[in-house]
């Protein structure tokens, strides 16, 4: 976007510096009428991001806001 507020600039700095990263997923997270886009992101730092799997965007709930719920798994604990 050509418009970025102060919070967006702070977030961009953290991403540029590698302090945080986002889950690499191509699914769209917003849908309204004929428009779809990726507006919602899962952010985190390592090693947490390496444990996130099975990211899914689900159909919108209701018809008002258009945001799709996101779910994902986080593998924690010791291997059996």
From TrEMBL:
- Which species does the entry assign this protein to? Rotaria socialis
InterPro entries linked: Endo/exonu/phosph_ase_sf
Domain of life according to the entry:
Eukaryota
Q: What is this protein called?
A: Uncharacterized protein
């Amino acid at each position: 976007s050509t418009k970025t507020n102060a919070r967006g600039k702070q977030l961009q700095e953290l991403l540029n510096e590698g302090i945080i990263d986002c889950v690499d997923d191509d699914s769209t997270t917003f849908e309204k009428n004929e428009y779809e886009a990726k507006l919602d992101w899962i952010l985190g730092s390592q090693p947490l991001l390496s444990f996130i799997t099975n990211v899914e965007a689900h159909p919108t709930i209701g018809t008002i806001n258009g945001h799709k719920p996101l779910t994902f798994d986080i593998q924690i604990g010791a291997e059996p």
